Model the fold of this input.
Amino acid sequence: MSSLAIAGYEARRLLRDRALPALLLLLSAASAYAAWNGVDWVQQREAAIDLLEAEAQDTHARVRKFVGTLPAVLPRSQPVLPPGSMALVSTGQADAYPFTADVIALADRTHLFKRVWADLGNPTVRAAGRFDLAFVIVFLVPLVVLAVTYDLWSRERERGIAAMVLSQPVSAGALIAIKALVRGLVVLLPAIAIIVAVVAGAGARDLAGLAALALTILAYGSFWLALVVLIGLFARRSTEAAIAVGATWLLVVVMAPSLTLAAIDLVSPPPSEMRFATDIKARLAEITERRRLQGKAQPTSMRSSAPSIPDEVRDKYAELIAPDRELAPMIAAHKRAQDARRGLLDKVRGFLPSVAVQDALDRIAGSDADRALAFQAQVLGFRQELRRRYRNYLDRDRPQTLDEYDTLPRFQFRETGGAFQAGVLADLAALVVATLLILIAAWALRARAATP
Done:
């Protein structure tokens, strides 16, 4: 019996199965609804960004009349993090990070992301998100694959024809490999085509992003196919195989991530945002009162020749920026605690296929933590640039001009990654390694397939 004959028979049998079209139809409906949710979220985010940008333009034009009457006019700015070109793929995590900031050049740093510093909401509830395509891929695609492939070899054993099939000139390992490959192609290729077509139809035109999405689904589906092969070596009946693959899905997709997160919470608990916000506010009040008393006890000495910009303005500038220097150690310590926990989570995700896939999809969509942190870092740099400009006006002792006001820097987010960024490649590599390890184990146990 040739490999082509085995593959042809397996393909014909699957295509005659009425369950396959029904499963693909359900997957199409779920994908379309998830894409609609994603498009709706993107539209809401873009509408909010348009309002913020219109408000910023209005503020910029309104305060222009004060230029020349003050040492410098630095209007309030609200930088925004725009949705990525593939944002509709994964929206569940995006609301966990700020997409805008409130930049007042001379305000303390905690004013930038007030919602972050003072956010007392439950992060677990907030991160649950909505029904998006990432949910369809992580949770539903494996179920479709398992529903089509769970009885890979148990069906022949259950019907008592395994020995007759193996009497042909074909090894048990090769037979199962061909059957798994055919079933995988029959179910995975349509599933990938459906999801990619839905994403493209919903407005995503990033070819690299669509390719990365297809590769992620293929790698994840291959992992589940490898698991089915391994389970098929042990299951004697189809009911046993169905129970085994169902339990495996529950373990890999639901229980393992939850239990791992609980263990990490015990080993490295998340730093308390409530305590941090309270400590920052208390420290800020202490700094403000201390500097007020120092200014009262040591008033600024008068110069022999008065500068164009009064020294009181320089004193006020020094008073406004002083808290940043004193709060910096507290903020840095909090960030180190967050980075340590995030580093641990990044290490663990390579051992959890469902988490690796979710992370890859977040990165492809641009709703990942790295992009959000890059936005926050760029906002800090933008604020420092405005401060430098203000300091330059004080140092030269000449107020800002209208030309200088009109050429003030405007925030523009600079993308730091792409569809095939290092994080996505690491997640795909983790899936490939997990799949290969399972296949190696199955190859070592291939002799079990020969037993009826």
User: Anything to note?
Assistant: The two ends are 20 Å apart (CA to CA).
